[in-house]
C-alpha cells in the first residue's frame, strides 16, 4: 500500500499541467514540497483531533513511535509559556524544559514567533533551520501549528532539497560576482562562509577552454582537476553537454546524476549554467522524487 505522502504527491502531480522541458525541474520540486506540506497538515489535523479528545493524555502518544510518526514527520507540542510538552522527534530531549527563547542555528527565535502567532491568530506557519535526524544535518524546516486550548500543536517538514527558483537565484548572484571580480568571486564560491553554500545549493565553475574546475562548493577535491571527460553514474558526459548548451543559450539546463551533499545519495540533479567569459558558472537543484 502506498504511503499517505506518496498518494498526496500523486494527486498533486495529476493536477499539474504537463510542462515544457525547461520548467519540468521546477515543477517537480514544487510538487514534492507541496505534497510534504499537505502531509504535515494532515498529521497536524489528526494530532489536534486527538488532543481535543484526550487532552494532555495525548502528549504520550505524540512522543512515542507509532501513529503520529510518518517518515521524517512528527508531532510536537508546546505550552503558551514555552514549555515543551511532547515531541516525537529529536526535540524529545527538550520535554518539560522551557524553550520559549530557543533560536535556530541562524539565530531566529522561531519558538517565540510560533507562540506569538498562536496567540494572535490561532494558527500559522513558521520557517527555521533544524536537525533532520534522517540525514544528520541541519536543513530548512517549515512547521504548521495550531493553538488548541492551553497547547500549541505543531508538525513540520524538512526541505532537504532546494527549489529550482533558489538555484537560479544563486546562479544570478554568482554571475554578478564573477563578472565584477572573477578571482575574488571564485575564492568566495569555495569558502564555506562565503554565502554561496547552503544545504544542497552551491556554485561550481569550470573553465570552458581547458575544462578545469575553479570552484566547487560541495566537492573541493575537484578544484584544479580537468573534468571534460567526467561522466555521471549513468555514463552521461554532462560537463561536455553543459559547455555545448551554454554556448547556444542564455542559461542552459542540464540534468544528470550526482551526489546530494545533504542526503549523501546519488540523485537526479538539474543544473542551470551560464557562460561568463571563459567560465562556465553553474548551480543545480535536486528534484525530490
From TrEMBL:
Keywords: Cell membrane, Membrane, Transmembrane, Transmembrane helix
InterPro entries for the chain: Double_Cache_2, sCache_2
Coiled-coil spans in chain: none
Gene3D superfamilies: PAS domain
UniProt membrane topology term: Multi-pass membrane protein
Location in the cell: Cell membrane
GO cellular component, as recorded: plasma membrane
Keyword check for Cell membrane: yes
Keyword Transmembrane tagged: yes
Protein name: Uncharacterized protein
Amino acid at each position: 500500500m502506498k504511503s499517505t505522502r506518496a498518494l498526496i504527491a500523486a494527486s498533486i502531480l495529476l493536477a499539474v499541467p504537463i510542462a515544457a522541458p525547461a520548467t519540468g525541474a521546477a515543477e517537480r520540486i514544487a510538487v514534492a514540497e507541496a505534497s510534504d506540506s499537505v502531509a504535515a497538515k494532515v498529521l497536524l489535523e489528526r494530532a489536534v483531533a486527538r488532543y481535543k479528545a484526550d487532552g494532555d493524555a495525548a502528549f504520550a502518544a505524540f512522543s512515542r513511535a507509532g501513529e503520529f510518526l510518518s517518515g521524517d514527520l512528527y508531532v510536537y507540542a508546546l505550552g503558551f509559556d514555552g514549555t515543551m510538552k511532547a515531541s516525537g522527534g529529536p526535540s524529545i530531549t527538550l520535554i518539560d524544559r522551557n524553550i520559549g527563547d530557543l533560536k535556530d542555528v541562524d539565530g531566529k527565535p522561531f519558538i517565540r514567533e510560533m507562540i506569538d502567532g498562536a496567540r494572535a491568530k490561532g494558527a500559522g506557519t513558521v520557517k527555521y533551520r533544524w536537525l533532520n535526524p534522517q540525514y544528520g544535518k541541519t536543513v530548512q524546516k517549515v512547521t504548521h501549528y495550531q493553538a488548541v486550548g492551553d497547547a500549541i500543536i505543531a508538525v513540520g517538514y524538512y526541505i532537504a532539497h532546494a527549489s529550482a527558483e533558489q538555484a537560479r537565484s544563486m546562479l544570478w548572484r554568482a554571475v554578478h560576482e564573477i563578472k565584477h571580480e572573477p578571482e575574488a568571486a571564485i575564492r568566495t564560491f569555495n569558502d564555506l562562509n562565503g554565502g554561496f553554500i547552503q544545504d544542497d545549493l552551491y556554485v561550481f565553475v569550470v573553465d570552458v577552454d581547458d575544462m578545469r574546475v575553479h570552484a566547487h562548493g560541495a566537492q573541493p577535491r575537484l578544484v584544479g582537476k580537468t573534468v571534460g571527460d567526467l561522466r555521471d553514474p549513468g555514463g552521461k558526459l554532462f560537463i561536455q553537454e553543459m559547455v555545448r548548451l551554454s554556448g547556444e543559450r542564455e542559461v542552459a539546463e542540464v540534468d544528470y546524476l550526482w551526489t546530494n551533499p545533504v542526503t549523501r545519495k546519488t540523485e537526479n540533479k538539474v543544473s542551470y549554467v551560464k557562460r561568463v567569459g571563459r567560465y562556465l558558472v553553474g548551480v543545480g537543484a535536486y528534484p525530490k522524487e
